[in-house]
Amino acid sequence: MQKLIVGGLAAVSVCCAAAAQAALPAPPPPLAPQDQATVQRVIAYLESITTAEGYFTQTDPRGGQAGGVFFLQRPGKARLDYDPPSGLTVASDGRALTAVDRRLKTIQRVPLGFTPFAMFLARNIRLDKDVAVSTVTRTAQGLSLTARRGRKASQGQITLNFSDSPLALKGWTITEPQGGTTTVVLNHFAPAAGHPTAFFQPTLPHEAAPQSDSQ
């Protein structure tokens, strides 16, 4: 998979495959009450999002940059269409992450549940059970929340970045188990019209869309 994909929705699939045998880290210490309150506020905000879209800018571990349009349709669905000449689309239909490179004529799929991004797309976001929140950080620009699924180092971790007053998603950073990071910054992210399920199941021209009863 091309390095460009790392840090998009498919980045965490690379993390999972590359470090499946990584040792389990110690669980993070309990959050302070103020941080717990912030986590609950973030959950309420994320669960309130239905359909939205905006432009994204991505910086990969080597400093390379790419951009495109990000679509979000919770629960389960998201899509990144990279600007030409990339030819790359990465999407989740709620079950799998699909990465389609139309220039190279390649397509790859991994189960959504293998990725830390799954917790962001879940209908009911549970940051008190299978997800370990390690850090809540506040800055002059807003706040960020870093989490991973339980103690699974092989899945890397995700940091969600928000503005404050009002709370709004501004992007995310994927950290690979090996330490590489890829950051996605959202611009003009706002409510938008919805799309049919097939929109989140990109294919190559010769391939039929996967069957799904997800709406």
Quick take:
By secondary structure, this protein is mainly β.
What order do the helices and strands come in, and which of them pair?
Elements: H1 11-18, H2 33-48, E1 51-59, E2 65-73, E3 77-82, E4 88-93, E5 96-101, E6 106-111, H3 118-121, E7 131-139, E8 142-149, E9 157-163, E10 168-175, E11 181-191
Antiparallel strand pairs: 1-2, 1-11, 2-3, 3-4, 4-5, 5-6, 7-8, 8-9, 9-10, 10-11
Q: Based on DSSP secondary structure assignment, what is the total number of beta strands? A: 11
Mean pLDDT: 81
Enter the CATH topology name: outer membrane lipoprotein receptor (LolB), chain A
Radius of gyration: 16 Å
CATH architecture: Clam
Global morphology: globular
Identify the CATH class. Mainly Beta
The rounded distance between the terminal residues' Cα atoms is 28 Å
Q: Please write the string of helix (H) and strand (E) elements.
A: HHEEEEEEHEEEEE
Largest sheet: 11 strands, antiparallel
| Low-pLDDT segments | 1-24
Beta-strand residue fraction:
35-45%
The number of domains is 1
Q: Structural class, please?
A: mainly beta
Q: Name the assembly state.
A: single chain
Query: CATH homologous superfamily, by name?
Result: Lipoprotein localisation LolA/LolB/LppX
Physical arrangement of strands within the biggest beta sheet = 6-5-4-3-2-1-11-10-9-8-7
What is the count of helical runs?
Answer: 3
| Percent in helix | 10-25%
